[in-house]
From TrEMBL:
Chain segments annotated as transmembrane: none
CC terms in the record's Gene Ontology section: membrane
PANTHER family: AB HYDROLASE SUPERFAMILY PROTEIN YCLE, MONOACYLGLYCEROL LIPASE
Keywords of this entry: Hydrolase
Name of the protein in its database record: Alpha/beta fold hydrolase
AB hydrolase-1 domain: residues covered: 23-232
SUPFAM superfamilies: alpha/beta-Hydrolases
InterPro entries: AB_hydrolase_1 (IPR000073), AB_hydrolase_fold (IPR029058), AB_hydrolase_sf (IPR050266)
Taxonomic superkingdom: Bacteria
Pfam families in UniProt: Abhydrolase_6
Length: 255
C-alpha cells in the first residue's frame, strides 16, 4: 500500500445522540467511543453529541499502513465536512485531543471551539514512563477491541505497535503553531494526570484564547472519573455570556 492510499480519508463509524448544537467528541488511542460514554451521557441533554471512531479503532476498520495524528485528523476533517457541515464544538481526549488539535490547526473554519482533555501538543509532554507503560496492554482493552472491531481480536497487537511507533515521535507541535490557533481552547486535565502539569500550563500560555482547568483528585481518566464536573466545565467554557473576572491578568485587555 503506497503513501497516497494510506493518507486517503476513510469513512469513520460514529454514534449520535441528543439535540442541540453539534458537539464532536474524539476518543483516546487504543480504545473507542465507549471511553466517552460517561461524558456523552452528561452532555446529550444540551448538544447533539457525535462520537466518531478513528481508523483501526472500534467499529472502524484498519485500512493498513501506519497510524499518524495527521492521517486521523484528515479522516476527522472529512467526517466534519460530511456529517456537520458547519463549525462544531470539538473535544478530544488523550490521543483524541492531539487529533482534535491537529484538526483545529489545519481547518479552524470547522471548529467553533476546542477542548483538549488530558492531551499533549508535543510527545515530550507525557510524564516519565508513560509511553513505556503503554507496552503493557491490559487484557480488558484487548477484550473491548475484540467485541466491536471488524478486524478481529488478533489484529489488536498490530494496532498497539502502530500506536507505539506514532507516540515515539508525535505530536511535535511548537509554541508558534499554537500561537497561530485563533479559536477558544479549554486545556483540561487531572491534577495527577499522565500529562505533565508543566506541559499543560505551557500549552495554555502559548494559545491566544485559552482557558485552563485542572480537576482535583483526578488522573488521566479524568473524563470517566468526574464526568459531571467535566461536563459543567465544558458547558461553562462554551457560554457566550461569561462575566468579567474581578482581577484579570492575561485577559486584562479583553472587553
Amino acid at each position: 500500500m503506497d503513501a497516497e492510499e494510506t493518507d486517503r480519508p476513510v469513512q469513520l463509524w460514529f454514534g449520535a445522540r441528543g439535540d442541540g448544537p453539534p458537539f464532536v467528541l474524539l476518543h483516546p488511542g487504543g480504545t473507542d467511543s465507549r471511553a466517552l460514554e460517561p461524558l456523552a451521557a452528561e452532555l446529550a441533554g444540551s448538544y447533539r453529541v457525535l462520537t466518531p471512531e478513528q481508523r483501526a479503532h472500534g467499529h472502524t476498520p484498519d485500512p493498513g499502513g501506519p497510524l499518524s495524528y495527521a492521517t486521523m485528523a484528515g479522516d476527522t476533517i472529512a467526517f466534519l465536512e460530511r456529517e456537520v457541515a458547519a463549525p462544531a464544538h470539538l473535544l478530544g481526549y488523550s490521543d483524541g485531543a492531539v487529533v482534535a488539535l491537529a484538526v483545529a490547526l489545519r481547518r479552524p473554519d470547522l471548529v467553533r471551539d476546542l477542548v483538549v482533555a488530558a492531551g499533549v501538543h508535543h510527545h515530550s509532554g507525557w510524564a516519565p514512563g508513560v509511553l513505556e507503560d503503554q507496552a503493557q496492554v491490559p487484557e480488558f482493552m484487548v477484550d473491548a477491541y475484540a467485541e466491536v472491531s471488524p478486524d478481529g481480536r488478533a489484529h489488536y497487537g498490530q494496532v498497539v505497535e502502530k500506536l507505539r511507533r506514532m507516540h515515539a515521535a508525535e505530536p511535535a507541535f511548537t509554541d508558534a503553531d499554537l500561537a497561530g490557533l485563533d479559536v477558544p481552547v479549554l486545556v483540561l486535565l487531572g491534577d495527577d494526570d499522565e500529562v505533565r502539569l508543566e506541559h499543560a500550563v505551557a500549552m495554555y500560555r502559548a494559545l491566544p484564547q485559552a482557558e485552563l482547568a485542572v480537576v482535583p483528585h483526578a488522573s488521566h481518566g479524568v473524563l470517566v472519573e468526574k464526568p459531571g464536573l467535566c461536563a459543567r466545565l465544558v458547558t461553562d467554557f462554551h457560554a457566550t455570556d461569561k462575566p468579567a473576572t474581578f482581577a484579570p491578568r492575561r485577559r486584562r485587555a479583553e472587553g
